[in-house]
Amino acid sequence: MFDLTNPPEGFHENPYPTYQWLREQAPVCPQADGSFVISRYDDLDRIYRDTKLFISDKKKVFAPKFGVDSPLFEHHTTSLVFNDPPLHTRVRKVMVGAMNPRALAQLEPGLETLVSGLLDEMEGKISVELIEDFAGAIPIEVIGNLLNIPRDQRGPLRNWSLAILGALEPKLSQEQLDWGNRSVEEFVDFLRVIVAERRSHPGDPETDVLTRLIQTDKGGGLSEVELYQNCIFILNAGHETTTNLIGNALALLTEHPDARRALLDNPSLITTAVNEFLRMESPNQLGNRLTTQDLTLHETVIPKGSDLHLSIGAANRDPAKFDDPDRLIVERKPNKHLAFAGGPHTCVGLTLARMEGRIAIGRFLERFPSYQLTSGAKRGGRIRFRGYARLPAQLN
Predict the structure, then answer these.
(1) Tens digit of pLDDT for each residue in 344-354?
(2) pLDDT given for residue 220 in this prediction
(3) φ, ψ (nearest 5 deg) of residue 54
(4) Per DSSP, which regions of 79-193 are E strands?
(5) Alpha carbon 85 to chain centroid, angstroms
(6) Model confidence over 74-132: pLDDT tens digits?
(7) 8 Å CB contact between 291 and 303
(8) Half-sphere exposure for 81 (CA within 13 Å, toward CB)
(9) What residues contact residue 61 under an 8 Å CB cut-off, 6+ apart?
(10) Would you say 366 and 112 are in contact if contact means Cβ atoms under 8 Å apart?
């Protein structure tokens, strides 16, 4: 039986044979701790939409994992993704308002300039490292601009993000826990200074997301703790998933030459291609819900209070939903993948992520159409988030 805390050899490199086995043989797969892995598309779609039977609040799960007095517990039980109404409704309303079309439109010219500059720096090099030199450099700058964090202060953001999100893995060492807790503390201390400065010198709330979040922290908006923790959430979620989207896409295009040729012949396909990259190699591979009552799914009894691990990576290659699911089809339509979850918890930043993917991947392919990966590629080694730690390439 599949054990999420001890996956089979080779799983981190290629989980898809295991996902196929789960969908076919164990669509509700019990775990030793009483939780269940759910892997079929229709089941995940139903679970995401039913917010009464399946809830997002993780206090019960995170208390023994992190300790109720820990910084990680405060962060992950306060941020948008692991909460239900009324907190989820209140926080999401503020964040959706902050990421309004005008604010996102203001980011696009800067994103174009950033991507062009990174491509210019790579021009003429024999080899590059696509995560460090390109994919990982983009979202930190974009989210930093969205919150208007001074550029010379953004250095620690990536490592904090990796530590805090890494603590969501099914199995953790004490070292990982310590690193995650320390990162939350350092991140909050960092934000206290930034927030204090922004209170004294507010920006335009229509385009400065942090100013907007600050100005709504009273009268039903965000408390001080909610403000800090959801700023961390915005930075973390925007960084990890977008880095993985770009890196995964560039790797996929080397594995599927027909898809690369189609995109080179018709660059306008980049919009549908981004959705296909998200489906094929979902940056976020796992979601979670807690059951509020007993239920039976595929003849398996799931007790009330059970933690469900929603296998997004498996659902997005479910042949019952997607034709030829293991093939990269850049013109695929419709493409109702679950990379951004679903229902009321659909990712707030999906428009921004798609914009970053469209510009970064499209411009890279335009500049370096013949790039090839070289030896030394290394996966991130995590189950919940799928991406590369290193992705060396030759550009010409």
Answers:
(1) 989 988 999 99
(2) 58
(3) -130, 115
(4) 127-129
(5) 22
(6) 999 998 888 888 878 877 887 787 777 887 888 899 999 999 999 999 998 989 999 99
(7) yes
(8) 23
(9) 288, 290, 307
(10) no
